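target protein:
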Amino acid sequence: MAKTQRKSFGDIEICWQEAGWASVTLDPAGGCDSGRRCPVVLVHGHPFDATMWQPQTTFLAEHFRVIVPELRGYGESSLPEGATETRLETFAADILALLDSLSVRNFVLGGLSMGGQIALEIMRQAGQRIRALILSDTFVGLDS
């Protein structure tokens, strides 16, 4: 996996790791139609960070562009000063803002545990951009 990259969005800094590109050609709009391969975005669960996806990233990077964001307050991503809670909607918006900044329009999305819940929220916010959805060990509902 490549080293951690950083980008500021307002009062937070989002970090991510990116790997791959092996013979992957995306259209100029960042899409993956007409037989082109979509970037794969993997969302980690709680209390992990991007490193939890290392085995999958290593394998997938041989064929796809793989983007693994670290959620705000996890790994090397920051949390706004004074923040006491985060919401699935906020995590999802952060990931979509990151993908927009990387010119990624369409993508395959995967999430594990809480990452699966966030993936479902991304689906709610921007479902037209998702070409495939992978959910693992997650549920639809709120933790109590």
